[in-house]
Amino acid sequence: MGQQINFFFSDEDTQVFDQKIRGQLDFVVIKQPTRRLGLEPSQTTRFEADGEWLKVFLVRRCDLHQVRFKQVLAQRYWLVDDLRSPVVEYSRCFCHNGVLRRGRLFFDEGYFDEAGRWTLKPDTFTVWASSIIKFMQFFATKTDVNGNRIGPDAARLLADRLVKAQ
Q1: pTM of the model
Q2: What residue spans of the chain are helical by DSSP H?
């Protein structure tokens, strides 16, 4: 079981959201894949280089030691094991050829362990992760019956017909 929220952000919305949420919550951004086992933290949720994956993870500093990884041998890299780690998935929006692609915040509240037992993640993590979802609800307005949210600049771009949302 998990919680999620879908949204449309322009680059400007991403920058403003990043600044505002950092003023409220303490977290580290983990990008993937990594070529070696371990964390590669970033200070921003924005794209910093060509070829970056859309998905990054938000993790509380106090939970960094609990982040697990899984190796992808054929590709020679490591990925965050988001099911078993206390992380929030942040699938970033992007705009290409006038089409604004939807992003998502998501986290699992628990998982089935190796013995098949349902294991809850710590309450402190769940409360923190839920606060990120709530912050998004405050920052971005609801766009339609599907529950998608939209940032202020993305809303302006859509209203001016400079982009299409997808």
Answers
A1: 0.90
A2: 11-24, 123-139, 152-159
